[in-house]
Each structure stands twice: as C-alpha cells, then as structure tokens.
Design a protein that fits this description.
Helix content is 35%, strand content 16%. A hairpin with a 3-residue loop joins strand 14 (330-331) and strand 15. By secondary structure, it is of the alpha+beta class. GO terms for molecular function: carboxy-lyase activity; transaminase activity. Keywords: Aminotransferase, Decarboxylase, Lyase, Pyridoxal phosphate, Transferase.
Length: 454
C-alpha cells in the first residue's frame, strides 16, 4: 500500500494530465467554488453522486480520515448504546474501538483457522447463519470482506439471512474497494447486500493514504450516517485526498477489465517462476481448499500470499525480503502478504523472484512451536466497562488471570489478540512474547508491560 505504487498511477494516466502537480496546487480549503465536504452542494456533491451511481448505492461518501473513521461512523449510525452485536473475531481494531466507544455488548463469531497452512480463512456462512438464527436479541452483525489474505465469505447468503431476521449487516471491506469492476474479481460488498460498507481506496486503488469510501444501502441509516461521517472527519478535509478519491473513482470507470486480467496473469506467471522454491508457494483458492475444513467461497486473485513450510517463519521471510529490497505488507507465523495493483511494474516482480530464488530454508528457519492465537478469549466485563475502569501497569510475565485494560493488537494486521475486558491467559502471554521476538509491533504492550484492570 498505497495502491498508486510510488505515484506511478498518477504519472502513467490518461485520465488527467499532470495530476501530481494539480494535487499540490489543490491543497486548498473551502473557498468559493470549491464546495464543502461536510455540506456538499456543488462539485463535491457531483463527485459523490457519481460515486453513488458507480457503486449503485443509496448514498456514498468520501472519507479523508481513512476506513477507521468509516468503521466508527458505521457502528454509531447503526447501533445504540447497550445493543448486542455479533462481531467477527477477526475484525480490525477500529471496529473494536467503535464497540467500546458506542458501549455495545459484543458476542463473537469464532474465526476459522487452517492449521495446515497456518492461515486465517474467514467465516463459514453455514456457521454464521446458524449463529444469526440462534443468538437472541442481536441488533446486527459486523463482518470483514475480504480478510487480509484475500479470502471472501459467502456474504450474499449471510445478507439474505440478516434481512430475513431484520438485523443489520455492517461490512468492513477495507481490502475490497476494487471488487466488482472486473469479471476476474469477487463481487463488491455493496452489491451483495451490506447495509453499510466501508472500503479503503488507498489500499488497492490509485488514491492517497488515509482515503476511503463509505456506501449506504439502507435508506433508514442515511441521516445517522450523514451525522457520524461528519463527526468522525476532520473539519479541514484535504482537497488533495478528495482529488485522489475522485481519481480512483474515474479509474474504476475506465477500462479496468484488461488491467486486472493482466495483473492476475502476471501473478500466475510468478507462481511458475518460483516453482523451484520447494519450501514455499503462492497460495490461491484451489490450494487453500485442499486443506481447509470447508471450501472458501471466493478469493481475490490479485493478492499474493506466500506460504512457507512448517518449521519456517513468515516473519523471517518478510525480514529477508525487506533486506533484499522487497517491501511486503505483513507477515504471520507461516505467511507473507503482498498487495500488488495494476501499477506495479516488471522490476517489482523481478526483485521478488530474485530474492525468493536466492532464499534458502536456513535463512527463514524457526524451531519454535507454531502458535495459533485465534479464538482464545474469555470476556470478564464488557469492553466499555474496562475502558472506564481503574488500571495498573503489569509486567507481561505477571498478568496471567488478570483482566486486560487495553486492547492487545499485533500490527499489522490490526486484529486484537486480547480485547479489553477479557481474561489474559498463559497462551496470550506466550503469543505476545513470540510476536515481539519476531519483530512484530504489538499495540497495547509498552516496555514489556500491559494495562490490567485493577
């Protein structure tokens, strides 16, 4: 990230000449003729109407504070204090922050994990629908589509059940802004029935970091969404950000079918070019389904996920690749994620191929036992109660059995290991230590100490 790849998207374009220079000149404020993002009636309204028509939503928004502001706005617009909400455990930290701020009562959907590949594989729609049918008094459900690895659940089937039960479906589609605009990509979450959907334009589209879209399909939520999108946005929105959001919109209206076909063809070629590396491979839907407990529904074939054999480390591979001039997006115990877009060039792939072919098993070996930390949680008090409670700093080694006073979040991907208000277990402690020793940033841990409820 971001999807413009060092500004290449702004240089090799047919949509607008000298877009980079225009962006710098466009660092302006709300003067006559430039409209106002918080009350659009002119050129910004025209752009937003065009975005709405493109995604076929009831209303769409430019977000200049990232998908984080969109996730907060969605939660506040859809739910009221004290509501019981079904949350996918693999949601981003901003979703959990919204839950805390809105004082919701979360119940969780366990995240599915493929132990053969060491890979989180999102949700089984059968399990999700069963929870919707059997969980009493839930006001809505929050899902991620796709997950960080490009894996997609059967969102349409889940949406149909939500509508049958009259509950809201909120979708964090941060990694799916490009979906639905090519036959070789999964469908967009908006078209699949999400009531509110947020998408990070900067992740996969040619837009500046911190830019995103939000789409509303449920007309009953528009007034609330208007208020909360504004409330969680800067009152001095960047016109450079908005210009890049409009640029991405126009990119999607251009001939993107061929661009994405070429991108996926290049990734397929890459798989063949590294086939001699017997201890690693680029995985896809077919490969995942060989070992998964249930077949994944869909997959983003523009995502590169490099999976390594057991006994090897995804974290060490990421470090190795960085040392060989290849910057990756993230890693976990067994996988490294890269996010190519149509704006990567052949040199980028050549560097990756060269580095992978040079890599040996000894470069990335790891003798420590692999840890799976998904679905290890026990709520003691509600997260919002923990946020207001008196807290103490405790050494990691001494916090077993205590109640977390902060979210503990490996970053990336930004999915909480422990949510505040949950019991800290020995498994959590060992996982935190393992992540830190692997060079992973863990938010909520400071100098080997964490906050616990007193």
């Amino acid at each position: 990230m971001p999807g413009h790849k060092y500004g290449r998207a702004f240089k090799e374009n047919s949509l607008c000449d000298n877009i980079t220079k225009l962006m710098i000149k466009g660092d302006l404020t709300e003067v006559d003729g430039l409209d106002n993002l918080h009350d659009p009636s002119g050129v910004i309204k025209e752009a937003l109407d065009d975005l709405k028509n493109l995604y076929k939503s009831k209303k769409s928004y430019f977000l200049v504070n990232g998908s984080t502001s969109g996730n907060l706005a969605m939660i506040f617009a859809a739910f009221s204090e004290g509501d019981k909400v079904l949350i996918e455990r693999g949601c981003h930290r901003s979703i959990f922050n919204g839950i805390i701020l809105r004082k919701l009562r979360p119940v969780y959907l366990d995240y599915n994990y493929d132990s053969v590949l060491g890979l989180p594989i999102s949700n089984n729609s059968v399990d999700v629908i069963s929870r919707i049918e059997n969980e009493e008094d839930i006001k809505g459900i929050v899902l991620t589509y796709p997950n960080y690895y490009g894996i997609c659940c059967d969102l349409k089937a889940i949406s149909e059940k939500c509508k049958e039960k009259n509950i809201l479906l909120i979708v964090d589609s941060a990694h799916g802004a490009h979906f639905g605009f090519s036959g070789v990509l999964p469908q967009n979450a908006v078209s699949l029935g999400g009531d509110i959907v947020v998408e990070s334009a900067h992740k996969t589209l040619p837009s500046l970091t911190q830019t995103a879209y939000l789409h509303v399909m449920n007309e009953n939520l528009i007034d609330n969404t208007d208020f909360y999108v504004s409330a969680f946005s800067s009152t001095s929105p960047s016109y450079m950000f908005m210009m890049s959001l409009e640029y991405s919109k126009d990119f999607l209206k251009s001939e993107v079918e061929l661009k994405y076909k070429k991108l996926i063809h290049r990734i397929e070629k890459l798989k063949q070019e590294i086939s001699s590396c017997s201890f690693l491979r680029i995985i896809d839907k077919e490969y995942i389904n060989k070992s998964a407990d249930f077949p994944i529904f869909d997959y983003d074939n523009t995502r590169i996920v490099i999976n390594v054999d057991k006994g090897l480390s995804g974290h060490k591979l990421l470090k190795y690749l960085r040392e060989n001039s290849v910057q990756c997006e993230m890693s976990d115990e067994r996988n490294v994620v890269l996010i190519p877009t149509p704006f990567n060039i052949e040199e980028d792939y050549d560097k990756l191929i060269k580095a992978l072919k040079k890599c040996s098993e000894s470069d990335i070996s790891d003798k420590l036992k692999e840890i799976c930390y998904m679905n290890s949680y026990e709520k003691v008090i509600e997260p919002y109660e923990a946020s207001c409670a008196e807290k103490i700093l405790v050494n990691i080694e001494d916090c077993e059995g205590m109640t977390a006073g902060d979210n503990i979040v490996p970053y990336p991907p930004g999915i909480p290991l422990v949510v505040m208000g949950e019991k800290i277990t020995r498994n959590h402690i060992e996982t935190i230590k393992r992540l830190l020793s692997s060079g992973v940033d863990v938010l909520g841990v400071n100098e080997d100490k964490i906050k616990a409820v007193k």
